[in-house]
Give the backbone structure.
Amino acid sequence: MLSSPFPDSDACVDGVRFCGTPRPLLCESFGSWVQRVCQHFQLTYSSFYRLTRIDVRKDTDLVLDQAKCRKLARLFALSEDDFACMRLMFQRCAASKSFRCFLNFTDDGKPAYRFCPCCLRTDATPYYRLEWRFKHWTVCPRHRVKMEEACQSCGCAPQMNRTMLSGNRGVPSLAYCCTCWSDLRRSPESAETEGCQEIDDAAATGRAVVSAVILGYFSILGFKSNWKLLRNLPGLLRHDLLVGVPCETKPLRRDASGKALSTPGHLMAPLEFERRRGSARTALRRSRRG
Ligand SMILES: [Zn+2]
Ligand SMILES: [Zn+2]
């Protein structure tokens, strides 16, 4: 029988020992929150598993379902709503492998994240956002900079499949490289991106794809009906035929009470539609036929 990492397991369950558990921050990924919890209680992923029976060692972001949210809320004296955002964001990818084409993985299949150094710099507590896991989230719309894929000093990417903040080699916060301990909050080289169309397009596309994954469908400017996420979107993105329509609303925010997930629809428009009208329409029609 597996034992709890704490000597008095009852005290864990009633929340006494877990007072002060870090709450998930706005749009924080489950992987990022688990890292911070492991740091707070000095747990490894294995001891987190022994404690919660939730295995976060393969792909943390994809393990959450409603029952696990309930369990975590009870165990760590938090609200189920604290986990709603991260569960809903990845629910399709968690339920079916087919949807994982929208997420980032390393070549050997480990979960991969990009990060925005500017976001990390402005965070009181540095954390990883849900959107940073998505393949098409290549620029930060808030800071208008390209997302970083790895530490600029050593070239290593964040390793969310193991604890980065606890254990012998734990770094002080998620703003540090877990391999060489460099500060990841350095200024990006291309800071002047005001009015850059490429940045605008990439930011809008990122938002549109994230929105489509949450909603399960997407729409294209000039077409009346909705398009199927899995059947149509990957192929169209692969052929560079779509770009997001710039949109003022954020793809993922809680409502005023901090509970619900808002998921405004985002339109996608064929890239340079007028110029490439013929080829775009043909490809869209072919994609729709599946
Ligand atoms: Zn940013
Ligand atoms: Zn490094």
